[in-house]
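Structure representation.

___
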Amino acid sequence: MVWQHFHHQADIGIRGIGDSLEKAFEEAARGLMAVICSPETIEPKEAVQIQCEADENDMLFADWINALIYEMDVRKMLFSRFEVRIHNHQLSAKAWGEKTDPEKHKLAVEVKAATFMELKVFLDSNNQWVAQCVVDV
């Protein structure tokens, strides 16, 4: 499992890769956090439940990333650990993290939303799931 950033003009692409669709979504969430700060500085102290539903994996992924961004904004939190379950186009997840501390987390940029730019969820030639999109910063 791995997460990556990829270049996209003024914004940033995030990509999660995993042995399962759920693991790819989890890795992309780690990539999202790495856009904002160093993920290793975030302690998984408090769990937040997240639910999403969409007819297609691409849209479910965009909803997942946007739900994380929403929870970060509303709760003033950052997350470092993720557990995703997907069944019948419904995502049920937990994200663990802590309250944002600018001194501890050394925030780089604010992510506003997942976009439809480069939005793809697919099984690659190595039989690995890939979930990606560009996020608006």
In short: The radius of gyration is 14 Å. The chain has a mean pLDDT of 94. Helices lie at 21-36, 57-75, 102-105.
